[in-house]
Amino acid sequence: MVYKEYDYIIVGSGLFGSVFAHEMNIRGKKCLVIEKRNHVGGNTLKK
Ligand SMILES: Cc1cc2nc3c(=O)[nH]c(=O)nc-3n(C[C@H](O)[C@H](O)[C@H](O)COP(=O)(O)OP(=O)(O)OC[C@H]3O[C@@H](n4cnc5c(N)ncnc54)[C@H](O)[C@@H]3O)c2cc1C
Q1: CA 29 to chain centroid
Q2: Which helix (H) or strand (E) holds 11?
Q3: What are the domain boundaries of the chain?
Q4: Cα dihedral sign for 15, 16, 17, 23?
């Protein structure tokens, strides 16, 4: 089994989760984003 380490596990890739992951990535933090839908952006998605 392969173990990976993350600084943050973020549930939901909506506006908040995506921005938080991006900002933390800039600061050198490793994030795992878990999303139940098949797209990112949450309710901001425009079709
Ligand atoms: C119809 C509508 C129109 C809107 N129009 C505007 C607008 O014009 N301007 C504006 O500024 N704002 C608008 N908003 C509000 C804007 O969409 C929200 O403020 C913003 O999307 C909130 O972001 P969020 O990341 O908090 O939540 P969300 O966008 O809801 O993202 C949460 C994400 O988490 C995921 N998730 C939830 N539970 C789990 C789980 N257990 N496991 C995995 N994933 C999970 C969801 O699938 C979703 O992708 C609108 C909202 C709606 C519903």
Answers
A1: 12
A2: strand 8-11
A3: 8-41
A4: positive
pLDDT tens digit at each of 47 positions of the chain: 888 999 999 999 999 999 999 999 999 999 999 999 999 999 999 98
> Is any ligand 1 atom within 6 A of the Cβ of residue 32?
no
Whether ligand 1 lies within 6 angstroms of the CB of 41 is answered as no
CB-based contacts of 8, cutoff 8 Å, min separation 6: 20, 21, 24, 29, 30, 31, 32
- Which pLDDT score is estimated for 45? 94
Is any ligand 1 atom within 6 A of the Cβ of residue 19? no
